[in-house]
Amino acid sequence: MSTERAAISIQEIPRMPARAKHSNRSLVLFSFFSIWIIWGSTYLAIRYAVETIPPLYTAGLRHLTAGTILLLWCVVKRLKPSAAQVRASIVIGALFFLIGHGALHWAETRVPSGLASLLVATEPIFVFVIASAAARKWRMNATLVGGVLLGLSGVALLMGKSVMASGSGMTTGAIAVLVGAFGWSAGIIYSRTSKLSGSPLLLSAMSLLSGAVMLLVTGTLAGEWRGFSFAQVTPRSWLALAYLIVFGSVIAFTAYNWLLERYSPTLVATHTYVNPIVAVLLGWFMAGERITLNFGIAAAMVVGAVVLVDRGTNQIERFEKRNG
Fold first, then answer.
1. Cα–Cα distance, 290 to 114 (Å, whole number)
2. pLDDT tens per residue, range 117-127
3. What is the rounded CA–CA span in Å between residue 228 and residue 271?
4. Are 301 and 150 in contact (CB under 8 A)?
5. What pTM did the predictor assign?
């Protein structure tokens, strides 16, 4: 789950095909590599980081560092926030980072990274349900209904075969991932309806910093400081945390922003389908996470559901635009 989707959710950038034609091909390929592969690999990096760093502290340190880097960038660009943006950054920081990423980092002390990525991939379904409930208007078509039903069936298969059979710790962790996905989805709905103007970069920096403060305070109140010392952190955890900050946050965020300035949001959103596949394969290849037949079927169902929900939503939006 990338943290930086917050910036783009707040202010969607229109397509600019003329500029895209003149973009450097290598830079385009690297940017898509960043949002497809790097973001998919962050699930395994989280697992390694939380091995010896408390999970909420891991998320807090990650976002504190990334947010500071982005804020310095904003200072160089002489960007100043409005009072409304400050308030929004607190709400978004709570939904995206305290609930969304806090739950994910905590859960990965209990569940494999591949399983976590598949459960997070259900976010488009949560977004559809929350948006429809908030608007009190259920816009449906066959593709969308099929995607929702397929996704719910995939999650049920994951929970039934891969999770509950593994014990209560795994079940609790899986539920935490779903809670985090729900919180992130609520943050997307809030950011879309807040109608804030201004720099997405600045709002992202402030949201990261506010979320980081909440994560570090919550982790301290939860007692993560007890028995923890920096001396016990392994080199692998430090490297994973550095990877999350530099590659998962700063580089992938910049690439995501750059792509959305030049290509359609639908094309860039393909990372939603690719990330869980990358996470599952990396978890299997590098961490020895098991891929059973039931897990493979459930994974295909969840990824297929994301594709169907995305297509169904786009079909509805195109229909509404044509009909005013």
1. 9
2. 999 988 888 88
3. 36
4. yes
5. 0.84
